[in-house]
């Protein structure tokens, strides 16, 4: 188990089809019994995808904070977390607003990674 999710649900090497192309998040979490499946391309479709996580690296700030965030929202991925490489490794948790089609920062959205690793985050 990985923080309450089965090993088959937590994937580190899976490209996601976001329509018109794809991205490979640093980590993705899938619904139980709904592993990644190929879509129109060599990338997996978004059916069953609960969460995409990106770790911001020097040089990827704009891609992770703007481009991927926008494309993941358009693809309907319910949650997007951005992990900062700051002193506490802050995780900014976003949820998709069904009405606007954009991500909103969760009310308690910024948490240190250590806190998230010691809990079972509700993402289903």
UniProtKB/TrEMBL annotation:
A Pfam family name for this chain?
Answer: Uma2
Q: Which CDD domains match?
A: DUF820-like (cd06260)
Identify the residues that the record assigns to the Putative restriction endonuclease domain, covering every copy: 10-108
The record's InterPro entries line, in alphabetical order, gives:
Nuclease_put_TT1808, Restrct_endonuc-II-like, Uma2
Which named protein is this? Answer: Putative restriction endonuclease domain-containing protein
Which species? Paractinoplanes deccanensis
């Amino acid at each position: 188990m990985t923080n309450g999710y089965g090993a088959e649900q937590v994937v580190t090497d899976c490209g996601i089809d976001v329509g018109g192309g794809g991205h490979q998040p640093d980590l993705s979490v899938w619904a139980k019994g709904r592993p990644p499946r190929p879509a129109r391309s060599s990338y997996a479709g978004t059916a069953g995808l609960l969460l995409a996580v990106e770790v911001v690296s020097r040089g990827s700030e704009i891609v992770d904070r703007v481009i991927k965030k926008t494309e993941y929202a358009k693809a309907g991925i319910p949650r997007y977390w951005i992990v900062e490489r700051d002193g506490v490794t802050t995780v900014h948790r976003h949820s998709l607003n069904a009405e606007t089609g954009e991500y909103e920062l969760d009310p308690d959205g910024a948490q240190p990674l250590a806190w998230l690793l010691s809990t079972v985050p509700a993402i289903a």
